[in-house]
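Per your request, structure below.
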């Protein structure tokens, strides 16, 4: 099964030399599930010719806000709608979670309480999960038909299920501890409050993405009509 990674942003060079960029992170996250991968750098306006060029799509994180004026955003929104119409499964992570919601009529804003960073506990419909996060924006109002399947006190719609079409997560299951450390070092100072950076540092080693990785893999295979 071929998964198309839609790369919506890139980490700074001083980080990526140690952590890599988003596509290999997702390849590691989903390793062992029998997928092959191809990446399109949509932030640079490199898009697939058709939503059927892959069996499923994965939309990455980004430094951008989905409500900002960037050329790739409306094109990506239409791509999401086209993929849903063609019944090609779509998964979104962080920015991907947000742009899926916005493309389908939901609302995304900056969280009134500020940043959410480091390991966070979420109440999924399948039970508690601790995931690494790094965001200020979040889905405030989900689109019609989307089901909220995870939440916590700082994020009311931490994961959304679009029956038959999509699954998205606000946190970063692909972020290993070295990525959070890189963000603490390179993007946090002067931006994220020191107390939150301290908590994020203390939370290293406590996130576990395996259950979410399995859920993503099952979602792709079920909705691509493949036998698991």
């Amino acid at each position: 099964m071929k998964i198309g990674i839609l790369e919506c942003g890139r980490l700074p060079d001083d980080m990526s030399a140690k952590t890599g960029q988003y596509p290999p992170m997702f390849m590691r996250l989903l390793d062992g599930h029998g997928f092959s991968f191809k990446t399109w750098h949509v932030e640079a306006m490199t898009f697939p010719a058709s939503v059927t060029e892959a069996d499923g799509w994965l939309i990455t994180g980004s430094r951008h806000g989905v409500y900002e004026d960037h050329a790739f955003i409306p094109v990506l929104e239409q791509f999401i709608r086209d993929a849903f119409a063609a019944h090609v499964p779509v998964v979104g992570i962080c920015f991907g979670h947000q742009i899926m919601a916005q493309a389908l009529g939901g609302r995304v804003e900056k969280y009134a309480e500020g940043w959410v960073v480091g390991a966070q506990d979420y109440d999924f419909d399948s039970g508690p999960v601790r995931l690494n996060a790094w965001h200020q924006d979040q889905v405030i109002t989900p689109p019609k038909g989307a089901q909220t399947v995870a939440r916590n006190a700082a994020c009311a719609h931490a994961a959304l299920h679009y029956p038959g079409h999509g699954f998205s997560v606000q946190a970063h299951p692909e972020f290993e501890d070295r990525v959070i450390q890189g963000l603490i070092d390179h993007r946090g100072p002067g931006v994220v409050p020191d107390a939150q950076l301290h908590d994020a540092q203390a939370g290293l080693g406590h996130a576990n993405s395996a259950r979410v990785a399995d859920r993503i893999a099952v979602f792709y295979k079920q909705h691509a009509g493949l036998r698991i």
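The chain is about 30% helix and 30% strand.

Regards,
D.
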